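User: Please predict the structure of the protein below. I'd like the answer in structure-token form so I can feed it into my own downstream comparison script.

Assistant: Understood. Taking the following sequence of 191 residues as input:
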Amino acid sequence: MKNILGLLPKILMGLALFILVVTNLAIAYIFFAPDTLPKPFYPLYAMPGQVTAASAQQESGEGESVDLSHLPPGQGLMVDTGSKIVNLVDPTGRKYLRVGVVLEFAPTDPKYFEMGEEEKKIYVSTFNREMESRLPVINDILITLFASQTFEKVYTAEGKEHLRQQIKELINQQLPEYHVIYVYFTEFVVQ
């Protein structure tokens, strides 16, 4: 019994040392391993494939243009295209899709995030007027794409995500001066 009690502090000390080493190795892996490797979480400064507006500004330096096309969702300018009702491809012609789409665009001006509140309001107002003039093109892209879908393609989560990517790609191709960051569905009914 005395031998076991004499070994207990050494065992606890070894266990504590082991936990300390494993914890330090895990922290080093999370912060220093390439972001292409799987990690339990990613430090905010280095989300894979994303750049925040603040880091884009810091990296740009004075007088250089910033590529805002890689902003993460939630930092761009929203354009509501409204709700659309479209017949799906169906032999009976009785299946339809009702969908509301909001597009998020990257600002076209690299200095957008440095602007004051008044400047931003003026910029957003001008941007919205530009988008109003391009809304017929956007609506045509959306309606044509939706009308070419089948019920089987769009009723699954994967189908919706694929549709989201198609919308993004088509609008970015048709309106190369603008860049869609993300596509939001505000309504999605398939019947």
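That's the full token string. The two ends are 75 Å apart (CA to CA).
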